[in-house]
Amino acid sequence: MSAPSKTIRRAKAGTTEAPWVRWTLIGIALAFMFLFLVLPLAAVATEALRKGLSAYLDALKEPDAWSAIRLTLITAAIAVPLNLVFGVAAAWAVAKFEFRGKALLTTLIDLPFAVSPVVAGLIYVLVFGAQGWIGPWLAEHDIKIIFAVPGIVLATVFVTFPFIARELIPLMQAQGTDEEQAAIVLGATGWQTFWRVTLPNIKWGLLYGVILCNARAMGEFGAVSVVSGHIRGQTNTMPLHVEVLYNEYQSVAAFAVASLLAILALVTLVIKSVIEWRHEREMKAIAELPPERPTAA
């Protein structure tokens, strides 16, 4: 085969590199996935079932495990809707409007990505703890935040609130404001514009952001570890319960709970893939629609 023909074939494939270069890169990527993803998941499943299915189920039926599972689900059920409201509002403000302090708002949205979760937990302790800024007032009114569920929820909200906003801001900026302006010119109110124009355009990005936020909320360890107090059966989420069991040399029980977290992560991944597939399918269907022909006057 001539050199120009090889070049044309490689250009159609999206690269001008030799086939061995592509296969080498693919092999490296697959090796990393096997080493850092498949192998750890296999190890978790193997250790969880090391003493049989009955021991695995007994570990999940244990009261402290159920308490950890319930607290994890409650925390995610509170944190995700709060972040949903904040993320949509923040993304709408940043992408659709110009105002003083916009750059500062964008920076603050990214703050949890720059701050260690442990530091975030310590901040809440300094504010709401017994010796914190408003801790004495809370104690006088018998309100518990630190070492209780409210503190866990607050810490989880802090570490997860960028996910939805950061997923929507680039999407809404790329879409522009033409459709919203057209709706307002035609007489739509702000809420009508949001529900009938903005929301349908961002639905896939919104779902994707919610899935990522939920996955992080259920798997958060650092900030929750600081504010929870590690009260077994009361303030331990699933990641904290795994740590407690492992430190007590209950490896089968620890890996059983860890496997449940892994299953939730895999379910999240499947849902994310389905959403991406449906989005691509919808975009392809829109692209294949025939162009509208102008009607004669």
Keywords summarizing the entry:
297 residues; mainly alpha; 15 helices
Structure in a nutshell:
This protein is an all-alpha fold and 297 residues long. It has 15 helices and no strands. Helix 4 packs across helix 9 (149-160), helix 9 packs across helix 12 (190-219) and helix 14 packs antiparallel against helix 15.
Using only CA atoms, what is the Rg?
Answer: 25 Å
Mean pLDDT: 85
How many extended strands? 0
Q: How many helices?
A: 15
Element-by-element helix/strand order: HHHHHHHHHHHHHHH
Inertia-based shape: globular
Helix share of residues?
A: over 70%
Percent strand equals: under 5%
Q: For the report, how would you describe the main beta sheet?
A: none
Spans of at least 5 consecutive residues with low confidence: none
Secondary structure class reads mainly alpha
Report how far the terminal alpha carbons are from each other: 57 Å
Task: Describe the 3D structure.
By secondary structure, the chain is an all-alpha fold. It contains 15 helices and no strands. 28% of the residues are buried. The mean pLDDT is 85.
Write the layout of secondary structure elements.
Elements: H1 3-12, H2 19-48, H3 53-61, H4 63-96, H5 102-109, H6 111-114, H7 117-128, H8 135-140, H9 149-160, H10 162-175, H11 178-185, H12 190-219, H13 222-228, H14 238-247, H15 251-287
Helix pairs in contact: 2-15, 3-15, 4-9, 4-10, 4-12, 4-14, 7-9, 7-13, 9-12, 9-13, 10-12, 11-12, 12-15, 14-15
